[in-house]
Write a structure and sequence with these properties.
It is a single chain. The protein is of the alpha+beta class. The protein has one domain (about 10-89): Hypothetical Cytosolic Protein, Chain: A (2-Layer Sandwich), CATH 3.30.1230. The chain has three helices and five strands. The longest helix is centred in the C-terminal third of the chain and has 13 residues, at about 75-89.
Length: about 90
């Protein structure tokens, strides 16, 4: 009965488009204020999503998308880690 499941959608902090949550990379801020990439999407912490696309990352840096999502400054290392992750994909 009822095989219609709702697909969770999230907005990219770069391109501002709504996409399937599973297609995106989650960046989280833990309680200790450290930033991590969450491949599983299950880790605890405040999350923001970004498309696995270098152009979206550039837009997110330019329009301060992650800063707005987390309401604080983002260390350069986080952007570096995101760039490396995107190169791997």
């Amino acid at each position: 009965m009822g095989g219609n499941r709702k697909v969770p959608m999230r907005q990219c902090v770069g391109c501002q488009e709504m996409k399937n949550k599973k297609e995106m990379i989650r960046v989280i801020r833990t309680n200790e204020s450290e930033f991590l990439l969450d491949a599983t999407g299950k880790k605890n912490g405040r999350g923001a999503y970004i498309c696995p696309n270098p152009d979206c990352l550039k837009k997110a840096v330019k329009n301060k998308g992650l800063e707005r999502s987390f309401k604080q400054a983002i260390p350069k290392e986080v952007y570096g880690a995101l760039e490396k992750e995107l190169e791997r994909l």
